[in-house]
Amino acid sequence: MQKTERKDVFRSGLFAMWGLGTLVLLFCVILLVYELAQRDEAPYATANPRINGGAPALAQTDSSTMRELLLYFASPEGAALVAEPRRIELSERTVENCRKVLAALIEGPRDLLAPVVSPSTSIRGLYLLPGGELVIDFSRELEMGHIRSASAELLMVHAIVASLTQSGINSRAGERVASVRFLFAGSPPTGAFPSHIDLSEAITPDLNWINKPSTFDGTRDG
Q: Which of the residues 30, 82, 101, 184 has the least number of beta carbons within 10 Å of its own beta carbon?
């Protein structure tokens, strides 16, 4: 009888100690969660953190800045290039900034100006060489969606070059675009397109095309 009582007391003591240990552990967990909450830290890190009741948290973009650039499109009558101011979020990499400017050119103008690049065009590759030559590899949609005229081809080329060689697009590291070389589907132009301008060499900016009438044969007034 005494042995049975001793076993019951021993068993009760074990349960009491187990219960006390559980309470201590629970208290420690609550204290840890409280400390993390005070530091604005989550107790479990996730790959896609969410804030404000489920909205995805946006990545910090301290290295990016909004800047007003000039995008060049054709005048309504297709006789000259006209600048359209556009605010674009730029990064610290010149080549990435060029990609964003090209995307805006492909998107087209927001005013009454005429687009210079077919909206179905895509950029297959973009490379900035050490000497400041930017190589753009366009898809074939640029060729298929473009009007075959000297005026249209010249305005397209010089709009792209003028938009990409402005100083505001350059990074703080000193990378700059001095000229633009055109490729189509990974190859140099064949002559079938564009058929009115020589793109065998990189093209440098020619601001005479901006707000300056151009004729069908590619000559400039003045």
A: 30
- How far is the C-alpha of 132 from the C-alpha of 141, rounded, in Å? 26
Instruction: Mark whether 44 and 113 lie in a shared domain.
Output: no
Q: Report pLDDT digits (tens) over 74-85.
A: 999 888 999 999
Q: How far apart are CA 32 and CA 46, in angstroms?
A: 18
90 and 141 share one domain: yes
The predicted structure's pLDDT at residue 56: 37
Rounded distance between C-alpha atoms, residue 159 and residue 210, angstroms? 8
Give the DSSP letter string of 113-166: PBPSS-TT--EEEEEE-TTSEEEEEE-THHHHTS--SHHHHHHHHHHHHHHHSS
Q: Are residues 136 and 101 in the same domain?
A: yes
CA neighbor of 202 nearest in space, from 170, 160, 144: 160
The position carrying tokens 């805006």 is: 104
CA–CA gap between residue 213 and residue 222 (Å, rounded): 9
Residues 22 and 40 in one domain: yes
CA separation for the pair 209, 220 (Å, rounded): 8
pTM: 0.66
Do 52 and 73 lie in a common domain? no
Task: Tell me, yes or no, whether 106 lies in a domain.
Answer: yes
